[in-house]
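Field notebook, page 68. I keep forgetting to write these up properly, so this time I am using the form the group agreed on. The chain and the ligand, zinc ion, are recorded exactly as supplied. Prediction of the bound pose follows.
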Amino acid sequence: MAEPSTLPPCPICGQPAQPQYRPFCSRRCADVDLGRWFSGQYRVPSAEIPSAEDEKYTRRVDPDDEVG
Ligand SMILES: [Zn+2]
């Protein structure tokens, strides 16, 4: 048990991260992550909760159905 520190796996490829590139495993993966940032793939999650108010679909059934 002489491990200095256990780094989480690279978020890009899942390989063991390297201390000099953490949290990534390599410069390449760090660049990939940076590229995603710049391309706008990372979006700040907004508190946008879809409401179920649109589902006001009421089915009308006439009791006075013509039976004959
Ligand atoms: Zn990686």
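OBSERVATIONS:
- Residues 10, 12-13, 15, 24-26, 29 surround zinc ion (CB under 6 Å).
- Helices lie at 27-38.
FOLLOW-UP: compare against the apo run.
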